Amino acid sequence: MYKYRKIMMVTSVLVLLLSLLAACGAKATPTPDTEKVPVPSNPGGTGEAVNLTGDATAGAKVFTDNCASCHGDQGKTGIANPGSADGTVPPLNPIDEALVSADVKTFTSRIDLFVEHGSTPEGTGPTQLMTAFGDKKLLTPQQIADVIAYVISLNK
């Protein structure tokens, strides 16, 4: 009887270990939301701006001075961008739904990646590229926080 219990216990432990190993080796399935969230083509994480409080009123001026020439007045229409997948610079009002999040920190982080690092749009050879305002030190972290607050305010 003792020998039978020992065999059963060892077998149970082996089954448990094999199950754990199989689970560890399995790839996590991303959620549909994770799969469709656009990310910039240029590498890098979020910048200091995500930890600052943005001022949408100040951000409107930053936007007018730095972003409107490509994204249009109040982000409503993007200019032509031959060679990009859809032929235009994307509007920001409304912004791509996949970037939107009810969690302000998440929404801020998603926008920040593009403002910080810029991006090359999909396509055969887009003529317009998103400028890396943070990496090139063209905007301060506070200006980036302000313009993000402004873009979010356009999408409420």
CATH class: Mainly Alpha
Total separate domains: 1
Shape: globular
CATH superfamily: Cytochrome c-like domain
Number of helices: 6
Structural class: mainly alpha
Q: What would the CATH topology be?
A: Cytochrome Bc1 Complex, Chain D, domain 2
- What is the succession of H and E elements? HHHHHH
- Assigned CATH architecture: Orthogonal Bundle
Q: Mean pLDDT across all residues, rounded?
A: 83
Q: Considering DSSP H and I runs of 4 or more, what fraction of the residues is helical?
A: 40-55%
Strand content: under 5%
* Multimeric status of the protein: single chain
Which residues form runs of ≥5 with pLDDT under 50? 4-34
Number of strands: 0
N-end to C-end Cα span: 71 Å
Radius of gyration: 23 Å
Largest sheet: none
Task: Sum up the structure in keywords.
156 residues, mainly alpha, Cytochrome Bc1 Complex, Chain D, domain 2, 6 helices
3D architecture notes:
The protein is mostly helical and 156 residues long. The chain has a single domain, classed as Cytochrome Bc1 Complex, Chain D, domain 2 (Orthogonal Bundle), CATH 1.10.760.10. Helix content is 46%, strand content 0%. The chain is built from six helices and no strands. The chain has helices spanning 2-25, 32-36, 56-66, 68-71, 104-117, 141-154. Helix 5 crosses helix 6. It starts with a helix and ends with a helix.
